Amino acid sequence: MPGIELPIDDIRRAAADPAFCAAMDALYVELDAEIDERRPVCLNRGVCCDFERYGHRLYVTAVELAYFIANADGPLRAGGPAGDCPYHEGGVCVARAGRPVGCRVFFCDPDAQDWQGPLTERILERLRHVGARFGVPYAYVEWRSALRALCERGDGPAEPSC
After folding, report:
1. Domain limits at 67?
2. Which of 4, 7, 49, 143 is most buried, with most CB under 10 Å away?
3. Cα–Cα distance for residue pair 67/57, rounded to 1 Å
């Protein structure tokens, strides 16, 4: 996709690497436990997944995309209706296992505003280290654009059928 610089071959290679997936599993288990300890409340039940209506953009790293591909249950989805996340169906996320950090950390709970930003920044730094360890260059891109770029390049070992 024009304007998007994604290391697609590196993303697909990492997605097929069990050691990469284990490292990401461990990182996400820690992240989810830290979030659970804070007991944030979801007040909108997925409204934020309608990016256009909510006035929200989800950004992801190349490392998160690799993990998402590794956990995809079926072909990648490049677009959603009217600006929705393509993995938001009937008010629920259908891609929970591989969902990006932004999806895990964001809560509309007013009490979450104090910790969301610092936690996100800390995790992004850890994602940089995972990327460096597994040869995935750092990229930070808008979610739906990244999915479209991956679908447009349907070659490689972790080929999605979009």
Report:
1. 8-152
2. 49
3. 20
Q: Which tens digit of pLDDT belongs to each residue from 44-100? A: 666 666 777 777 788 999 999 999 999 998 888 876 556 778 888 887 888 888 989
Residue 157 lies in a domain: no
Distance CA 93, CA 87 (A): 6
Question: Does residue 158 form part of some domain?
Answer: no
**Three state DSSP letters for 52-101:** HHHCCCCEEEHHHHHHHHHHCCCCCCCCCHHHECCCEECCEECCCCCCCH
Q: How many domains does the chain have?
A: 1
What whole-number distance in Å separates Cα of residue 162 and Cα of residue 136?
23
Contacts of 95 (CB under 8 A, 6+ apart): 68, 71, 72, 73, 87
* Tokens 């997605």 found at: 15
Task: Specify if 56 maps to a domain.
Answer: yes
Q: Report d(CA 102, CA 116) in Å as an integer.
A: 9
Torsions phi, psi for 56 (to 5 deg):
-130, 145
The CA R_g of the chain, rounded to the nearest whole Å, is 15
Structural domain includes residue 146: yes
